[in-house]
Amino acid sequence: MLTPTIETSEAGTETPRLEIKGVGRDFHTKAGVTHAVSGIDLTIQRGEFVALIGRSGCGKTTLLRMIGGLLAPTAGTIEVDGKSLWRENNHVDSSAITKLGFVFQESNLFPWFSVLDNIALPLKLRGVGKKERRARAADLADLVGLSGFERSYPRELSGGMRQRAAIARALSTEPELLLMDEPFGALDALTRERMNLELQRIVLETTSTVVFVTHDIPEAVFLADRVVHMTPRPGRIRQILPADFPKPRAVDLQTTPEFNDIVRSLRHDLDEEE
Amino acid sequence: MSQSRMLKILPWIVTPSLVVLIVVAWHVIVTTLNVNTFIFPPPAMVWDSLVTLLGEARTWEAVGVTVTEVLIGFSIAVVAGLIVGVVLGKVHWLELSLRPLIVISQVAPKVAFVPLFVIWFGFGLTSKVVLSALLAFFPVMLNVLLGVRSVEQGHREVMQSFNASRGQTFLQLEMRSLQPYLFAGMEVGIVLATIGAIVGEYLGGNDGLGNLVVSAMNSLDAARTFALIILLSLIGLVLYLIVNEAKRFFIPWHESVYGLRNTTG
């Protein structure tokens, strides 16, 4: 039962956006060694939206942090556009990490910057001139629906608006790959539903490739082209389910039998764990 | 009237009322108990002394001297406190090895060093500036140290995910998130800097408001001493308000400023 059924999408002629081979991560604690993630193989093509789903402790966030250049793997390789992300001594390859955009569980906006300056921060770090980065940040604020709030401080925004700003910030460098770690986990159900629609629109407009971590099954099936189901101890891929519904998807999709079949099957498998 | 407007005008009613109440009580007690005015002068006598004091040219000279000492001492303390605080905050082994010395120098009664400062730096401005800077240095440095260590992990990861260099992380994140701590240290520091300058003047030299206090005391002029204390308090208040206003200007986003602005108007 624990044998993972690994599906890799058909190898195209292009280099895949993300190629994960045999990735694992051990944590050394006083109690001994914990295998947080082990033997992950996953290939993600350009323009794909992949959701990582699983119970708490299944290693989905750990995996995402390794893809995002925040945590070094203890085994395996991660390639972004055919280029290895991690170099020796746990250093990150800067040409690979600049292709990534990360959205965290918390918005992590800087309270001393306005919304506009927060969105423009990554451009500032890349040495883009003030005028240009402000103009681009204003466009992004518009894209994520924050027009009129450019000069507000983060503390003046609601939770949903803060996450919109965080998404705009991650998009500012036009990343090839957008990594999202339960970005809407702290929002109420209604706001979350609206944010999912918004995210879909933004992703389609920017033709981004996305890896999205969540523990919400309908959210994963609604957003993703493929849902990667992970199981804990050690964190492994158990199965990969396709969710081939045409895009853009409307909220109504969630009431169709096809949608619910996938949700039910995933829920059944998740419940089976212990 | 809305509650927030009430809260806004409340201090403007309470503070003057309390001051009036204290002055009246002072007057009543001193006159009914028939206290010797040499020992405890009534408010009217103090007021007269204050008016006389403010009319004297040498008072304003003394104010100039004292304020100069405070400002120089405070500026040195802020710059040194910021640099030392950041270095100790970033270089962990250095802070660990210096910690005992820091604690000792912090708890040492620095006022006791004034005679030494007078011997080393003379009776002029320098010995007062040194004491003033020394007293204000520690709260600034310790708050900055705390600030450097208090950068949110989530914010660090944002910088990491955008491949920020160490220099960029320092300038865009660390230096900015320590600002509220710096201002907290400065608010304490400006008060201590003022105390340092005055105590320095008490004990050595013949300039500044502290020296005027000593000569008023030597001539057993309690009313004049009171008047000088009031003047010193006003100077301390103005200096504190300047630092407070600077805080509102430089970190309008911080809770201590933003919260205040939005609950009291």
How does this model look, in words?
The complex is a heterodimer of chains A (274) and B (265). Chain A has helices spanning 60-67, 94-97, 115-125, 130-143, 159-171, 189-206, 217-223, 257-272, and strands at 18-29, 32-44, 49-53, 75-80, 83-84, 100-103, 177-181, 209-214, 226-231, 236-242. With 274 residues, chain A is α/β, with parallel strands linked by helices. Chain A folds into two domains: 1-99 and 178-274, P-loop containing nucleotide triphosphate hydrolases (Rossmann fold); 108-174. In chain A, strand 4 (75-80) and strand 5 form a beta hairpin. In chain A, helix 3 packs parallel to helix 5 and helix 7 (217-223) packs across helix 8 (257-272). Chain B has a single domain (42-253), classed as Orthogonal Bundle (MetI-like fold), CATH 1.10.3720.10. Chain B has twelve helices and no strands. Chain B has helices at 3-32, 43-55, 57-90, 92-107, 114-121, 125-149, 153-161, 166-177, 179-203, 208-218, 222-250, 255-263. In chain B, helix 2 packs across helix 11, helix 3 packs across helix 10 (208-218) and helix 9 (179-203) runs antiparallel to helix 11 (222-250). The longest helix of chain B is centred in the first third of the chain and has 34 residues, at 57-90. Chain B is globular, with a radius of gyration of 23 Å.
Which short descriptors sum up this protein?
heterodimer; A: 274 residues; alpha/beta; Rossmann fold; 2 domains; six-stranded mixed beta sheet; four-stranded antiparallel beta sheet; 10 strands; 33% helix; disordered N terminus; B: 265 residues; mainly alpha; MetI-like fold; 12 helices
